[in-house]
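hiii, so i know i said id send this last week but things got crazy w the move. better late than never?? heres the sequnce for the chain we talked about at the cafe, plus the structure i predicted for it. fair warning i was half asleep when i ran it
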Amino acid sequence: LFPLVHAADPTFDPSAKALSLLQAVMLFTCAVVAEETTYRGYALVALEERVGAVRAVVITSLAYALLAPGPTWPPKVWALGFGLLAAGVRRWRGSLWPVALVHLSASLAPKLLSGDSF
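okay and structure toks below
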């Protein structure tokens, strides 16, 4: 969702330093649900039927990585790794819940570990 939010508000800070804990939880929960439903929910399942599991995992992970925030490669490489892991967990567990919880935790970790007051 970052590209859409950034297009609407170029001053948006994706590090969430300016957000309260409640705002961060709400924002990231919405983003995680949207991303996981799109990539590991719909796209992964639809592609598996057409191109097989391995190709579906790679395609959805690449798409997820290419849309990662920022123009530099380190976040995109991290997103590719996360996408591969998330798709693997999704296929292994058969549910989006474990992936969504890990994704939400990873998104909130910088806010929770920064020492900012809430």
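btw The radius of gyration is 15 Å. thought thatd interest u
miss u guys!!
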